[in-house]
Amino acid sequence: MSKKVTYFLFLFLVLLLSPRIVNANYEAKFVADGTCSLKPGSTGNCFYSDTTFKSLVQKAYWLDTGDEVTVITSKKPVAAPEKGNGSECKTTFSYVQLIYKNNPYYGYACTDNIKVANVSDELKKEFQEAGFPESYWADLSILKEAHPKWTFTAIPTELDFQTAVNNMDVGNKSLYQSTSSSTQGYLSTKPEHYNWDTDKFKVYDGSSWYAASNETIAYYMDPRNFLSDMYLFQYESLVYEKDVQTLDAVKALLGNAYISKFADYFFEAGVTYEINPVYLASLSKVEVGGGTTAPAAVSGKEISCSLTDGEYPKYKGYYNFYNIGSTSGVGCSTYRGIRYAASQSLDTDGTPKADNYGRKWNTEKKAVLGGADFIANSYVKRGQITSYFKKWNVVYNYSKKNGIKSPPANYTHQYQQSVFAPTTEAEKTYRSYYSQGLIDSPFIFYIPVYKNMPASTSMPAQGNPNNRLKTITIDDKKISGYSSSTFNYKITVPTDTDKIKVSATTINSAATVSGTGTINLKEGENKLSLKVKAQNGDIQTYTLVVTRTPSTEPIVYPKVEEIVKETSYLTNGEYLYNFSLSTKVTTFKEQILKISPTAVVTITANKKEKTSGNIQTGDIITIVSGEDKWTKTAVIYGDVNGDSSIGVLDLLKVQKHILGSSMLSGAAKEAADVNKDGNITVLDLLKVQKHILGDSAISQK
After folding, report:
1. Percent of the chain with pLDDT over 90
2. What is the mean pLDDT of residues 463-484?
3. Which of 158, 169, 161 is nearest to 414 (CA)?
4. Taking CA 402 as the corner, what is the angle to CA 396 and CA 407, rounded to the nearest 5 degrees?
5. Residue 171 zone, left/alpha/beta (φ > 0; ψ -120 to 50; rest)
6. Alpha-carbon Rg for the chain in angstroms
7. Considering the entire predicted model, what is its pTM?
8. What distance in Å separates the CA atoms of residue 289 and residue 261, rounded to the nearest whole number?
9. Strand partners, 539
10. What are phi and psi of 310, to 5 degrees?
């Protein structure tokens, strides 16, 4: 079946349903490979959308060993035609359901190739002795039936699975390419990666690479999701095997790509550095692209990069077939790789060091061979012996026990950040071997095993995850102190208010909200729920407790001064202080409203209302409680320039004030008096300096 790794078919353990159930559907897997006659050069078994065998199911063209289908037993099998399309099957076709790109497809597939994974006692023993837990056995047995010469070796990582996932879920270690809202559900919504209010994900590379979610990382790290022909080769040893990894296999993998003209170099590199040349070609095709025109990284054309911190030198006549040194960043990643190709590590006498890998790479051959030398010595010979381990480095414990010198620590030294890179490379490698008739060679696959593995892992739901509200209004007025991340509100209305109109708008246009409209109120508390459903199906509930004040109970509004006294904030005349450098506008409002839900809090800066960001020196804070109104100016001592941080600019402002060259006034002057003695002197300057140096933090009390 023609697949993209992004939407890999989910694999589950296959269990026969009770034989007492008549006409019950059952899950099974494909176990044999054959050429699909309507798709020349493809692998697998034809999947027809109808019984006339004139069409294939659109977007899902063939099935490979290990792919899961559900046999629909309510439709009887149909006989295979004697010639033409469908004649590749010698018996009957069964009606099955196939899940592809999270969508169901229905069609006819050859019954002979549909198998239920019954693990024989012999295979159980083999898998147990190889070190695999039972959750691997069903899929491995299907692969073993299709390819008897294949050997599976378990690599015990000695790591807790979720702990390993969490360690790969840090910063920009694990990225996912998303070009549409349909795949945004696979991305991380941690605060450092995503802003709920703007519905923006942080870009880590190019224009479409974002941090993957914990679930997505777990799915791609779980080997059991990829125990099928097309993706198994991410566990193939990267050590060169001359009987299998031939020049023809390299050429088959590269096809008509521009880099195919360098097939001989890839093969020579594999032989020279004892690394799988088919893998090298696959890696290059993934890294620089498989187009028919020269990719920028291997064109030799002039390349430059201009970043915010200055102009970088231009390079021309250099090549990098594996994107080595192309560290992630918004723009210029290809440039970084060319800069690496053009650089050298030199000893004091000016001669290249051993770790120079043939640089400068000013010819295609130098780049192909030098890059292979780098991969072999930096990864394969240090224990990262498969494509999987080059991305997910969890093999330190195993490497140490098996005599590998200086293996990189777990969770470090990853070749790429893309979570699906190993599966993409595996697919290309598999197709190459298949086209050369090498697929049944005696391959050895090194498959990781973790401690405490879950029963299964799966990709998150598709679609944008934003299930937050931009606004909530009652009778066309915004709720006081509203924040998209606050989900509970208490609201009081006059006794004569017997109904209200509740309206809400979502941050993301694909999200929907229910519970709005005209609501009848009884006296006392009325609990209202607004349910926001994101495009990916996630639901967030906002709860409004609307109290209709009984006519006998007048509304009592506390004094603003009493409200503030219950917080940690302090007043000094016209100023309000004791904020931290990271006190958010929304946090301050929530603290006031928690004490008095009827209060109205407004924060302005430069005569404009602030609804987000941090409290800064000079912000005007107005709190209204009933008829009592209270206005103060925020002061963060040391934050003289009002940017909610203490740095060199603040130090300069204090210095200029002391020297008399630029006098401070108002909140800025108050913020400069960090020792609060009523004067701005060298003592204040020293305190700001010590804060910047990290010697002594400025007290806000």
Report:
1. 66
2. 95
3. 169
4. 35
5. left
6. 32
7. 0.68
8. 14
9. 533
10. 130, 170
